[in-house]
Write a structure and sequence with these properties.
single chain; Quinone Oxidoreductase, Chain A, domain 1; Rossmann fold; 2 domains; 7-stranded mixed beta sheet; 6-stranded parallel beta sheet; 10 helices; 20 strands; binds zinc ion
Length: 347
């Protein structure tokens, strides 16, 4: 039995043998996992034992941001071969569902998502995954970049939902990993400039190093003031709320131009107040984002084309044997850490 990173219960991780279903169906591929990113959701299950309605009642293998190498293909698989370098989309819907038929499989109530109880994740040497949700990586895209496609896909979904027009000016509130991914996707999607606000200067320094991104430290200047100044009091075309913080959410209408768009990306832990009249007075369009659908190909294409460089956001890479230490470091929440990745041993 292979060694996996197991969340035994809230606050307790172990590296141990763990039984997983390894049955290869005709439309599946078997993948030797190479790189797995540590996500805020993995860390939250570790520290809190639950996210909303999803509760860790049984030991669960963590991890959902992964790349690897195909080592076996099911009988009916045509587009992948043994040896292909790939990354995997962690949410598997029911292909027969109404949501899947509509192309919105991310909101299929039956979706099974890695490391979301009771579904096990991918911090284990081998996974079996549907070929339809497994994507080949071009030769010059590394496994590390492949494992960044998952968090970047959320930024892509946000950019798609915004329906960006060429030259739009955007604001991203919150410079966490998802805020950074959203800012880069918005730039790649046609924004001429993206302002990113946060109160942690080290985070702003990291994302502000990208051309096209300007930062606002809200300890020094309120975001509304900075955006008013930058846009001649007009406001931003698109506001991506990525902080999940109540004051930022309440303030989003002030950042948008009349007729602009708000995309709610950040997830507040508890219900928060929302300024409806502020939205109405500018006839703002409000979009929400839950994970992503049909964006992996686009995300990989942008990375392969050099239009999006996610490598500067990989802060630390640790071997699988040290993955508990990697999680403890993620719990610290250092402001200079964006993404911590775990590398599986190569057989
Ligand atoms: Zn994630």
């Amino acid at each position: 039995m292979p060694t996996s990173l197991v969340l035994e219960r809230k606050g307790q991780l172990s590296l141990r043998d763990f039984p997983l279903d390894t049955n290869l169906g005709p439309t599946d591929v078997r993948i030797a996992v190479r790189t797995v990113g540590v996500c805020g959701s993995d860390v939250h299950y570790y520290t809190h034992g639950k996210i909303g309605p999803f509760v860790v009642n049984e030991p669960m293998v963590l991890g959902h941001e992964a790349s690897g190498v195909v080592i076996e293909v099911g009988q009916q698989v045509r587009h992948l071969s043994v040896g292909d370098r790939v990354c995997m989309e962690p949410g598997i819907p029911d292909p027969q569902s109404r949501a899947s038929k509509l192309g919105i499989y991310n909101v299929d109530p039956a979706v099974r998502f890695w490391a979301t109880p009771p579904i096990h994740g991918c911090l284990t040497p081998e996974v079996v995954h549907p070929a339809a949700f497994t994507y080949r990586l071009p030769d010059h895209v590394s496994f590390a970049e492949g494992a960044m496609v998952e968090p970047f896909a959320i930024g892509m979904q946000a950019a798609m939902r915004a329906r960006i027009q060429p030259g739009d000016i955007a604001v991203v509130t919150g410079a966490g990993p998802i805020g950074m991914m959203t800012a880069l996707a918005a730039l790649a999607g046609g924004c001429s400039k993206v302002y990113v606000s946060d109160l942690a200067q080290p985070k702003l320094d990291i994302i502000g190093a990208y051309p096209g991104i300007e930062t606002i430290n809200i300890r020094e200047t309120p975001a509304a003031e900075a955006i008013a100044k930058a846009t001649d009091d007009w406001g931003a075309d698109v506001v991506f709320e990525c902080s999940g913080a109540a004051p930022a959410i309440l303030g989003v209408p002030q950042l948008a131009r009349p007729g602009g768009t708000i995309v709610l990306v950040g997830m507040p832990v508890d219900p928060v107040p929302f300024d409806i009249v502020g939205l109405q007075a500018k006839e703002l369009r409000v979009e929400t984002v839950f994970r992503y659908a049909n964006v992996y190909d686009r995300a990989i294409s942008l990375i392969a084309a050099g239009k999006v460089d996610l490598k500067p956001l990989i802060s630390l890479t640790v071997p699988f044997a040290d993955s508990i230490a990697a999680f403890d470091r993620a719990v610290e929440g250092r402001e200079t850490d964006v993404k911590i990745q775990i590398e599986m041993p190569v057989e």
